[in-house]
Amino acid sequence: MTHQTELKISIKDWVYITFIASLFGFFISFLFYYIEDNFRDISTVFFGTVSAMSISLASSFFITISNNFILPHTSEKFWYIISFMFSFISGVLGFLVSFNIFFFFEISIIEVIKPFWLHITILSGFLTFLIGFILHQFISHRYKIQLIKSKLLENKILALENELNPHFLFNALNSISELIHIDTQKAEDSISHLSQFLRNAITKKSLISLQDEVEMVKTYVAIENIRFSNKIKLTITDDLPNIKIPKFSIQLLVENAIKHGLTSSNLEIKINVKENKIIISNNGKKPQNIKFGIGLTNLNNRLELLDIGSLNYNIEDEMIFNIQLKDIK
User: Fold this and answer.
1) Which end of the chain has fewer CB within 10 Å, C or N?
2) How many CB atoms lie within 10 A of CB 97?
């Protein structure tokens, strides 16, 4: 057991486990009902079902206590011993609870079980440990698969981000290099803005807040406006919801608008958020058709991999891209 999360079972898992345990107890006791005359009483079926359910609930309680308060502070080499102990105790207590309930109400099956109650109690403890061990292996295997899938997804997203960063830096540095021989002051201002942009952009998080992304967009437009003599006007909606979006998502669409939409006249770029859409529109040159190059394909892939939305566009009076999000809370 190399990861503590391997021992954790979700509430949904416990619901399934309790349900399956109850069915198992029902069918086992139902089998005894038919093959053994001493157990030919309907209370046998109820006792088996209640015992299985109480053992399952006891296991849920003790494993939750173990995971949250004991295992995190215990060396991993003792985990199996602790798990065995709690599994055994769960089986013993679970059976004793159901036994005492039936004994208290003087249900007929108790008279058959009473001579063997100690043997059955110990056997219940060992059987619970065995079932718990098998369940533990299954849960561990499932979480390992999920961890591998998560790492693969993380690596894919990181690869896409690494593909995008050089693309942006090349364009920004190219803009600054053109200014060096034309206007030294503007070049210095551009470097200052680029430095501020990179400080905000250097984060390992794939998702950042909409506010942080907008701040990077403002800095990026400031860099481009130095190059294009303030021909770019950026308008941003006042109310920005507190949501997470992929890093460089809006910036990339703004960069695309400047690259393909800027003409000799001014370019107005608007960023609006409506319901579950982030809309980036511009009044610049409208292309006859849209081709998804490296940047747009990259953004669409990241939206899909992160499972938060998709990239769409339409050409009406203005060139409009929108990031369609699955949910905005």
Assistant:
1) C
2) 17
In angstroms, the CA 34 to CA 305 distance is 55
Whether 166 is in a domain gets the answer no
Q: What is the pTM of this model?
A: 0.52
Domain that residue 141 falls in:
4-149
Closest CA to 172 of 189, 155, 148, 152: 189
Q: Give the mean model confidence (pLDDT) for residues 89-99.
A: 91
The DSSP H or E segment spanning 53 is helix 42-65
pLDDT-above-90 percentage for the chain:
11
- Give all strands of the β-sheet with 319-325 in edge-to-edge order: 232-236, 267-274, 277-282, 319-325, 309-315
Pairing type for strands 267-274 and 309-315 reads unpaired
Query: What are the tens digits of pLDDT across the range 192-249?
Result: 878 877 776 666 677 888 998 898 898 888 888 877 888 999 999 888 888 888 888 8
| Cα–Cα nearest to 256, from 284, 278, 233 | 284
Please give the full DSSP string across 234-299, using - where no structure is assigned: EEE-S---S-EEETTHHHHHHHHHHHHH--SS-EEEEEEEETTEEEEEE-SPPPSS----HHHHHH
- Domain shared by 27 and 102, yes or no: yes
User: What is d(CA 31, CA 35) in angstroms, rounded to the nearest whole number?
Assistant: 6
In contact, 206 and 247? CB cutoff 8 Å: yes
- End position of a domain, from candidates 149, 167, 201: 149
Q: Distance between alpha carbon 258 and the CA centroid of its chain, in Å?
A: 34
Q: Give the pLDDT band (50/70/90) at residue 278.
A: very high
Q: pLDDT value at position 93?
A: 93
57-84 average pLDDT score: 81
Bridge-based pairing of strands 309-315 and 277-282 is unpaired
Amino acid at 299: L
Q: What is the pLDDT of residues 154-182, one digit of tens each?
A: 666 665 555 555 656 776 787 788 778 88
What is the CATH classification number for the domain harbouring 232? 3.30.565.10
Total tally of structural domains belonging to the chain: 2
User: 100, 128, 149: which is the final residue of a domain?
Assistant: 149
